[in-house]
Amino acid sequence: MPVGIFRVCLVVITAIVNHPLLFPKENGTVPENTEEIIQKMKEREESLRLEQLRLEQEIADQEATQKALEKAAEVVEESKEEKVQWDMWTALSMVIFLLIELWRQDFQEGNWQDTGGEEDDMAVLGKAFKGVAFPNKAVLASFYEKRILGTTGDMARMREMVEGFADDLLEALRSVCNRDADMEVEDCMGVGSMYENWRVRKPFVCDLIVPFAPPEPYCFRSQIWCSGDSFPPDEQGYGTIKVCRADEDVTGCICDKTKLGEDMLCLLHSQANTTRPSSEMEDLLCFKNTQYLDADQVMKWFQIAVTKAWNRIAHKYEFDLSFSLLDSPGALKIKFRSGKSIAFNLNPVVQYENSDVYFISHFPRSSLAADLPSSTHWFLTFAVYERRFVQLVSKTLPANACHVSCLQVLSFLHGKQCSLTGPSGLTNYHLKTVMLHLLQARPSQDWAPEKLEARLQDMLKFLEKCLHEKKLYHFFIGNGKVPAELGFPMIFQRAEPLNLFRPFVLHRDIYRKTVDTFHEMLRNMSALINEYTVHIPLAHTNGIHKQSL
């Protein structure tokens, strides 16, 4: 303990002795150093004060910036909330609009099916019918007897002559073709107004379709717009035809999609089957460097084959045969030495699977229809099923039913009006579609012969409604009520309805012309019919009209 106290005392004494203020060194300048220190401290204090001011200014600027950012964020948040509210209202409005539109379409389609049998149909007709004088039953009966019935015998004789010549021509065509390399041509079939007995305007033209198939070992595999793959709107109603080998897998093999190595070989397909020279596919009438059947190549081949066939049998006939229209490759004309002529269409077609739906290379087009998307797109025709449907329904109708008469009168009126004011977007096929819809919708007893006047008004009313809405649906496509007896393919019944008036939305000038022509036809209807009607005494006409009431 004493030793520790001694050490502490020694350290304190040593510190006191060595302190610089008690024993300054020689030539010391303590006062001068103190003044310098004080001066430096003042300078330091001034610099610190300036630094403090700068920092305070920066802090103030940062606070102002922060407040501005907070204010901007609040504005953005408010705008987002308003935008969300606006988007929500917009979406809600669109949903309500779509629901109303769907309800309106369903309501209209329901009305199509419920055309009713009221005698006061004229009370609900549109503005176009106000002031229109409809011919009475006596005038319509006289017109039909004088203008329509007289053509039936002429059509029958012409059909018989054309069918006989076409069979002979196709038989000669088969003899000039190479059975191992050329397409195989089947027997022709008559379709259209001439074979459904409602053609009224001359010149009479027979429409014949000729199915054909590729030579062995090839086959056709078709793809339609409603088969599941997405097709643009302008390609609805069309399909493509692929030329394949008969032994080729329908679902496709992996060797057709994957590049195999040089040392690998597909066990299902030989190398000869998987490689097809471009020249071989072109010989099969395919589009260049593809396997898809080309409509233009088919028509070129068909025209050459028909020409060769005619040269072989021309000596048997006392008339000439020629192609009549450049824009319709299948249009043929028989010219007799007397100067008379007969026109008919002979168009090659491809059967869709095992049905009576056919792909047709060229179809009679109107000013309303657009051009084909490409020469590999083929239009589908349901003409065979349309004829069968009319025949099937006719068995349930009263004797001498007026459905064909209505179509004949309407077709005559429209054709006569177009000859006066120029063509419109309406075609005879549109008029036929209207009849098919009403034929399915109305009870059988409504088509009795004495109801011709009422049913004609129904067709005009239906047509006016379709023109106003720019909607006329194809009779078969999307129609789930097609009779099962027809054997119609279900894929078309389950498809979305096809609007034949869709082009009216795109071509407003044609639509305006069509509507004007329709209205003009209504105004001229009585005059057009009276022009071809035998004079009927007024008293007799009134008596018949009163009896019908």
From TrEMBL:
Keywords: Cell membrane, Coiled coil, Glycoprotein, Membrane, Nucleus, Signal, Transmembrane, Transmembrane helix. One of its GO terms (molecular function) is protein kinase inhibitor activity. Residues 1-15 form the signal peptide. It is a single-pass type I membrane protein. Pfam families: Mab-21_C. Residues 404-477 form the Mab-21-like HhH/H2TH-like domain. InterPro entries: ITPRIP-like, Mab-21_HhH/H2TH-like, MAB21L/cGLR. Its main location: membrane. It is found in: Cell membrane; Nucleus outer membrane. Residues 38-82 form a coiled coil. One of its GO terms (cellular component) is plasma membrane. Enhances Ca(2+)-mediated inhibition of inositol 1,4,5-triphosphate receptor (ITPR) Ca(2+) release. This is Inositol 1,4,5-trisphosphate receptor-interacting protein. It comes from Podargus strigoides (Tawny frogmouth). The gene is Itprip.
